[in-house]
Amino acid sequence: MPGRSDLAQCLKCGLNFLNEEGLGKRTKRVHEEKGTSQNLQNTNVIDVLTNFWLKMTSKKHKLPEEFSCELCEKKGEVSVLPTKCEYNFHIITHRIGKPKDL
To answer: Which residue(s) pair with 8 in the sheet?
Structure first.
């Protein structure tokens, strides 16, 4: 364990670090101003907006999937289910039988 004199200390908040690299990373993350003109010059606004749009639309629009039951196919039947939830319920009905109507 390094002694206190071996630690790198932040001049802004007094926090100690094992090395200068850790101090530098924290200084960038915590103490440097965000959104300075230098940072904005390095950022392409179109790229930021495009990436944001792609993330938002990929979460909303999923391609429809169909799930086929292999157990039904083995019996020569065709069973195509529109959602994973319905597929899972269908598989359970093979194991324990169809639920009784209430």
So the answer is: 17
Q: Which residue pairs, CB below 8 angstroms and at least 24 apart, start in 43-48?
A: none
Global confidence as pTM: 0.36
Structure tokens belonging to residue 64: 């429809």
**Residue 19 in tokens:** 């090395």
**In sequence order, what are the beta bridge partners of 80?**
68
Residue range 49-96, pLDDT digits in tens: 777 777 776 665 566 678 899 989 999 998 888 888 889 989 888 888
SS (H, E, C) 1-48: CCCHHHCEECCCCCCEECCHHHHHHHHHHHHCCCCCHHHHHHCCHHHH
